[in-house]
Write a structure and sequence with these properties.
The protein has 503 residues and is of the alpha+beta class. Among the domains are: 3-35 and 224-285, ATPase, nucleotide binding domain (Nucleotidyltransferase, domain 5, 2-Layer Sandwich); 294-414, Aminopeptidase, CATH 3.40.630; 430-502, Ribonuclease E, catalytic domain (Hypothetical Protein Ychn, Chain: A, 3-Layer(aba) Sandwich), CATH 3.40.1260.20. It has 13 helices and 24 strands. Strands 4, 5, 6, 7, 8 and 13 form a 6-stranded antiparallel β-sheet that branches.
Length: 503
């Protein structure tokens, strides 16, 4: 497997592409003029508490207040602050369990209180940032959970002996009350490398807690490393053939960073000097454009169509011109397997999350349905780092799944809603707009004293339609209302607008 990390630096933007066999798998953007909030820590101020929906609004100095739901509040903090609400128990009696539904957010935090929060999700449209007090600090091998005393481990590490070794290593070295998630790159790594990562993250947490006590309200007190360094931290492994930057300063920074965290990979850091540009050389620009299209073509001649709504994302699989060699069932299975692999890539590349329904081509064989289901789940597990839950293929050939994601979708990052259709995907036809204008004109003529001469200004498209297709209609209106109607084409008019002038 030929895997590369490509970093394109410009004064206005940084772009990072992850490729696998020269096929784009992930793309990340960072505009230097915008502030990156995700994973940042703030000294927030609680401005409003809504017990009815168990949510608090927290001012973090941004345009909109962030929102903190009860489910994102550290459980130990909640239990500690709620303890006084419940009846005292005898010293030797078993401690009373406080269930989630018993906890009221207004008894945990109060309005005007300063609170340490981390941004879980960036603001989207009219919504403020989603906040949490279940803090996470990502490293190369671990994700430190400084206030959640549990140890989790990646499902992709399958060896029982290796899982046990890693858990024991962390159990012995984690400070009391802290927990961690063991990431996939930890597999077969030495204790020294993993502990180096752990101590670095613990030091970062101590810095955060110290800054919190010294910071002003609403102040940002910690942010994640630069985008290019994040990509290297999260993706650099033994499968990566090269990390290529087109900027000498960036290449130098990357070299020092990798030398510190993964010296065995430092030889992979390379500088590219075009022409052509780095992204053009590896065909990244074209692949980004293709990822913004609703239709994705498969190598066999089939295709998948991706449609996203407010409620869910729907993927439709089509055979296209592929007809197979032996029989229809073989053709359908091969197309479905190829489509399943393409869907996994597109979910990652487009950063699609939430509820997803995939309409695979219906297959008669139960064995083939199981083969497709196993292949799809295996591909997701191997190539997608985000958690997903997949149901089996239904009798209609549908696969339902949910997928978590981080950050904005590719569409939201690179495109904005169409001003003409407001995101609906369709606009009124020229004939429909023309008939609306004619109805408006007729109503004006019928309701007013009509002079002998009238001017109607309108968009060139409706002008052409009315003056050619509906020419006889104009003559009838002129005869009925005993007036002369002059049409004028104006580029400045919107297609649905018109202006009537009585002369």
């Amino acid at each position: 497997m030929n895997k590369k990390i490509l970093i394109n630096e410009n004064p206005w933007q940084t772009r990072v592409a992850i490729t696998r066999d020269d096929e784009l798998q992930n793309i990340y953007f960072w505009a230097h003029s915008t502030e990156n909030l995700e994973r940042s820590f703030f000294k927030g101020v609680v401005t409003k508490i809504l017990p009815g929906i168990q949510t608090a609004f927290v001012d973090i100095g941004q345009e909109r207040a962030g929102f903190l739901h009860i489910s994102e509040i550290d459980r130990e903090l909640a239990v500690q602050r709620m303890h006084d609400q419940f009846e005292e128990v005898e010293e030797n009696a078993p401690q009373k369990t406080i269930r989630r539904e018993q906890i009221d957010i207004s008894n945990i935090i109060s309005e005007g209180e300063n609170i340490l929060v981390q941004v879980n999700k960036e603001p989207v449209k009219e919504k403020g940032a989603k906040l949490t007090t279940c803090f996470t600090l990502p490293g190369r091998f671990l994700v430190l959970m400084p206030n959640i005393g549990r140890i989790g481990i990646s499902k992709k590490i399958e060896s029982k002996e290796e899982r046990q070794r890693l858990k024991e290593l962390l159990t012995e070295n984690l400070p009391q009350g802290m927990g961690a998630i063991i990431r996939t790159p930890s597999e077969k790594q030495g204790a020294e490398e993993i502990l180096q990562d752990l101590y670095y993250l613990i030091a970062a947490w101590k810095t955060i807690t110290k800054k919190f006590s010294e910071a002003q309200p609403k102040e940002k007190i910690y942010e994640d490393i630069d985008l290019s360094l994040q990509a290297v931290r999260d993706h650099l492994d033994h499968d990566v053939e090269a990390v290529i930057s087109d900027n000498s300063e960036s290449q130098s920074t990357l070299y020092k960073f990798v030398k510190n965290i993964a010296p065995e990979h430092v030889h992979k850091i390379q500088l590219y000097q075009g022409p052509p540009s780095l992204f053009e050389k590896y065909n990244i620009e074209n692949q980004i454009e293709q990822a913004l299209q609703r239709k994705v073509y498969l190598k066999s001649g089939g295709s998948i169509i991706i449609e996203t709504t407010e409620a869910m994302t729907v993927v439709d699989v089509n055979t296209g011109r592929y007809i197979g060699k032996n029989n229809l069932e073989e053709t359908i299975l091969k197309t479905n397997l190829e489509a399943a692999e393409a869907v996994v890539r597109q979910l990652r590349l487009r950063n699609i999350g939430g509820l997803i329904v995939i309409d695979f081509i219906d297959m008669g064989s139960s064995a083939n349905k199981q083969k497709l289901s196993r292949f799809f789940e295996k591909t997701l597990k191997e190539r997608d780092k985000f958690q997903s839950v997949v149901l089996k293929v239904s009798e209609f050939g549908l696969v339902q799944m949910t997928r978590k994601r981080s950050g904005k979708t590719l569409i939201n990052q690179l495109m904005h809603q169409c001003n003409s259709c407001n995101g609906f995907g369709f606009v009124k036809s020229v004939s429909n707009e023309s008939y609306t204008i004619l109805r408006g004109l007729k109503q004006e003529l019928a309701s007013k004293k009509v002079p002998s001469f009238i001017t109607l200004s309108l968009h060139p498209a409706t002008f052409n339609y009315i003056t050619s297709i509906e020419y006889n209609t104009i003559l009838r209106l002129e005869k009925t209302y005993k007036c002369k109607i002059v049409f004028m084409s104006k580029e400045t008019c919107a297609i649905h607008d018109y202006k009537i002038e009585f002369n």
